[in-house]
Structures are given as C-alpha cells and as structure tokens.
Amino acid sequence: MPFKATKTDTAKALTLEWVLHVKNYGLTLDKNRCASCQICTLACPKQAIKLEKQPKTMGEKAKKAKIDIDLQKCNFCGICDILCPYGAIKVAVNGKHLLSVVDKESFPQLIRDVRVDASKCPTDCVECEKACPLDLIKVSSVTPDGRAVQHGNSFEQENPEAKLKVDVQKEYCPCCRVCEFKCPEGVMNVRKFLYGKILIHPEKCPEGCTDCLDVCPITGALYLSDQDKKVYPNETFCVYCGACKAVCPVESALELNRTKISHTPLRSGAWNKTLERLASPIEVTKELKAKGARRARDSVEKRLGWRTA
Predict the structure, then answer these.
(1) d(CA 68, CA 29)
(2) Beta strands 24-30 and 13-19, pairing class
(3) Which of 59, 180, 241, 255 is buried deepest, with most CB atoms within 10 A?
(4) Which carries the bigger pLDDT value, residue 74 or residue 104?
(5) How is the chain split into domains, by residue range?
(6) Which bin fits 85, alpha (ψ -120 to 50), beta or left (φ > 0)?
C-alpha cells in the first residue's frame, strides 16, 4: 500500500499519485486534449475510469462527458496512456514517462503512421496547419544552417535556399486524415490506427438533436444534413473514438463498432482481453486466429529448422 495517495481535479487536469518506498507513481489526464471518448474506459482492466453525461442547457451545445478515475482502483498500469487516441493521459514513475507493460513486451503500442513529404509543399502553403482540428501541425521555414525564417508568401524570394519544415505532434495525433485530404496530393500520408463502422439511425434521433456533432473533436467526421437537419457520419475522417456515443441520448440511435486496431507486433496474451473490450467479437476472433497461426508456424520452423521468405 502507498504511504500517500492523492487525487487533484482542476479545470485543466486530473492528477493521481501514489507515493511508495522507492517509487512514486503518477497519472495525469490533460483535459484540454481529452475528448471524453470511450477508449480508456473500455480498455481499463480495473474499471477505474468512468464517463458521465453532463446535463444540457436548453439552447446550448452539448458538453462532452465528464471523465473520472477512481484512485482506489487505478494501479498505474499505463494501458489508458498507451491506447488514448489523443495522447491525453500520461503515466510516470519517479517523474519519468514509463510504461512497464510495454517495456515487458506484454502490451503493444498504437502505430501512428503519419508521413510528410515537405518537398511537395507549395512554398506559401499552410493548409495542413490550418486544417488540423487539434492544432498539432506547424509549418515553418529553415535555412540550410538551421536558422528559422519567417514563413509567408515572400519567403522564397527573400530566402531562396530555405526549405519548408512540417512538424506533426504524432503522440497526440488520432490519425483522422483531415490534413491529408486538405493538402496537395502526396504531401501528407496518414494511415488510421483505429478502423470500424459508425452508423446513425436518423429516425431514432430526437428532433433537432446534434449532441454527437457538438462533442466530436474531428472537424468533418460528423456533419449536419441540409436536407433533413439530421447528423450523419463521414467515415473518411472518423477515428472511432466513441466521444459521440458517450453523449448520445438514445442508446440505439448510434452504432459504433471497431473492427481493427493497428499496433506493434506482440506475442503476449495480455492484449487479448483488452482487444475483446475494444473491438467487435468477429474481428477479435480473426486477430486471435492469425496470432495462433503465426505461433504454430514459428514453432514448426524452430523445431525443423525451416525458414520462410
């Protein structure tokens, strides 16, 4: 048991801490980055994380669900940290960001595959920076000696040797692909790490309800139809986080199923139970069968000395 256990809840962050003999464990939830989605609540093996719908004031937009973490249940395993699509949760040991389940190779990491070819960017273009719904992209100009120059319409004439530099904060990026579609072709290449299917039944939506649209953190993932004034999904940009599902007032009006999670290779079975809570049973079965086949193949190759291409 810890010598000291504290929980601090402010407008900007929720912080939990354990003080032990030789180690201090800390968990910080950045409320500005948190979308109050369903991922951490589903992934937590201790059921320590809860979401609570917030009351809605007539005439105002819906508020994202309130997230809370039970200090008595949390054991600082870091699974919520690993799987948060928005990088809003950080777990630290003695002040350093440390994920023991990853270090022990018992849990995978999400593959945030974002590639940028700045050489294809028009010199005056900042479309990706303006398009990012989470303000995670910054476009700058750098001279060959590393000196930053002011980026603008005339920078090429004033600094002919300067190159464009596009910085993406990948650890916070949910890979929505908005930047990829807003940029000239070939500049941004983004691969999603959460795949799925979202379906909204407009006939079940309350008249005038836009709660899901109000809380969606990704611009364009949901939109309001001009024809029937109902909300519909755009799966090109949806990251299947479940922030919309968490606030939907009608349980059956919005269906969300995650079908695939792109992650680093893994041999441990600890991930399987988490996968069962996050993804649909059919897709879980597919991944487990694939893993079983790989293990069987590796076992045969090792026993017989076979090598495959």
Answers:
(1) 10
(2) antiparallel
(3) 241
(4) 74
(5) 4-103, 113-191, 194-261, 279-304
(6) alpha
